[in-house]
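Could you help me review a protein record that somebody else here produced? This is what I was given.
***
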Amino acid sequence: MCEPVYKAGTGYEKKVTVSSKVSKKFHGNLYRVEGVIPESTCKLSDFLYKPENRVTWDKALKVYNMVHKIDSDTFICHTITQSFAMGSISPRDFIDLVYFKRYEGNINVISSKSVDFPAYPPSSNYIRGYNHACGYVCSPLQENLAHSKLVMFVQTDMRGKLSPSITEVTMPSHLISFILNAKDGIKTHKVASGHGRHQGGHSSFLKKQ
């Protein structure tokens, strides 16, 4: 079981919970993050992974590019992070295989895992991090079907000479910031597009690449 390590906010719409347990994949933790996002499940899944949207609201990223499409539900992306924890963790880059699957009950699961991709070898400009099996689960919130419950599973090996203790101290607040930034980004996007009207879904987005 994951042990709670951090909570923020009160009430089901504002609360964000981070819990963790020791990862079986590397010398670090598996984190579980849960929060409520004021958007439908389909639009939330689309919003989280469109490259043209992601860097506008995810303050942890400098770059998020789809570099190779395998099929309509599977692609490889290249990510470069910002430094965080007041600069104690320098920028990393990642090459991840991402897979989207829709389940009954309007549940969308986005799975990802780092891979080797010859077209994007490690660069001397960044430390190449590694994401062990991670995932996002978007499902309708039963108390309010216009909102979604977002559950994230994260087990990121930052690599380099970084002490694991620094990651353990800083990761919970970093993950909570992701949820809060997503909420702010969706709010801004709704205003910009006119009362929440925006086009497209996950599958149509991938087919356009």
